[in-house]
Write a structure and sequence with these properties.
alpha/beta; eight-stranded parallel sheet; TIM Barrel; about 45% helix
Length: about 325
């Protein structure tokens, strides 16, 4: 697995991260542990979770799994969204909801709306930070986390002096190695422009149709760490990506070598384009997809381990996929 440096402190991890949002939520305990084991065995050492994931239990399962492995991995967690306290009814309903989604995926939106009601967002007070981090450390069975992100934070947190000072204090105490913000790209752009000293790490959604923010990180220092999540962008984006790549393969103005690589846009080709277009030559060090199914994990690991595309081809594909319809790419493949 390709390893990357994460700032100047010597921290390193796999360029492919494991997203833990489904652990103990959409996916139950047994399948969650199976997915974690497969990821670790494949060489994945970056694990991204949050206080709110899995109704507040994702961190606990990750901590259980990583017992005895802590010094060989990088843990990223978040604060700011608080899960509601669990009770017997919720614990009984969760397995039922998983089964409903398996047999009737069409009800996913309704289920997600109900799930959303189980969380309280925008909790960015100093007291909320302290309580959240102490809970995270206890559940993760560790005395420090490598990354702590403000979860779905608004731009207003960038002006909260007390909160930023508290984050700096946590770094000085060694409870957190790096602090950052996980937010919409617009907020990330504002954070980068503001140059808040306390923040050196950024997490955001990024897919091949929306790579504009990646350009911002090519201009950042090597000390800045950028983590992209949701790289495939959901089912609709996957379908659009396949269709766009298939059309490129039919374009006679495209060199034959690249057309041949795109001749069949199967899962392996799609993963190769998406994951490497995001992480190669962009300033984004780590990409974090959800990989709860073994076949998805294996495909993504293979894509990141050895891409079939050259750096020039990936740069050209980035430009073509993000350009408005009908706009010719500025880059040349020749």
């Amino acid at each position: 697995m390709r390893q990357v440096g994460l700032g100047h402190g010597g921290l390193r991890a796999s360029a492919l991260g494991f997203g833990c949002s489904a652990l103990m939520g959409r996916v139950g305990r047994r399948d969650s542990l199976r997915a974690l084991g497969a990821a670790y065995d494949a060489g994945i050492t970056f694990y991204d979770t949050a206080r709110s994931y899995g109704y507040g239990e994702s961190e606990a399962l990750l901590g259980e799994f990583l017992a005895g492995r802590r010094e060989r991995v990088v843990i990223s967690t978040k604060f700011g969204i608080v899960p509601a306290k669990t009770n017997f009814l919720k614990e009984t309903v969760k397995p039922l909801a998983r089964k409903v989604l398996q047999v009737a995926p069409g009800v996913r939106k309704a289920v997600q709306q109900q799930i959303g009601a189980q969380f309280s967002a925008n909790n960015f007070s100093v007291a909320a930070l302290r309580e959240s981090l102490e809970t995270s450390l206890r559940k993760l069975r560790t005395d420090y986390v490598d990354f702590l992100f403000m979860h779905s934070a608004p731009a207003s947190v960038l002006e909260d002096v007390a909160l930023l000072n508290e984050l700096r204090r946590l770094v000085r105490e060694g409870k957190v190695l790096r602090v950052g913000i996980s937010a919409d790209p617009e907020v990330i752009e504002t954070a980068l422009r503001s140059g808040v000293e306390a923040l050196d790490s950024f997490q955001f959604a990024c897919n091949v149709f929306d790579l504009g923010i990646a350009q911002s990180f090519t201009r950042c220092s090597d000390e800045v760490v950028a983590v992209a999540n949701h790289p495939f962008g959901g089912m609709q984006r996957v379908a659009e990506s396949r269709a766009r790549l298939a059309s490129i393969a039919l374009d006679e103005d495209v060199p034959q070598e690249l057309r041949e690589k795109l001749r069949v846009v199967d899962d392996s080709v799609l993963a190769d384009v998406v994951l490497n277009a995001i992480t190669c030559g962009t300033g984004i060090q780590v990409v974090v997809p959800s990989m709860m199914q073994l076949k998805h994990l294996e495909t993504n690991v293979a894509a990141m381990d050895k891409t079939r595309f050259s750096g020039i081809e990936l740069a050209w594909l980035r430009e073509v996929l993000t350009a408005p319809a009908g706009q010719a790419p500025l880059l040349s493949l020749n």
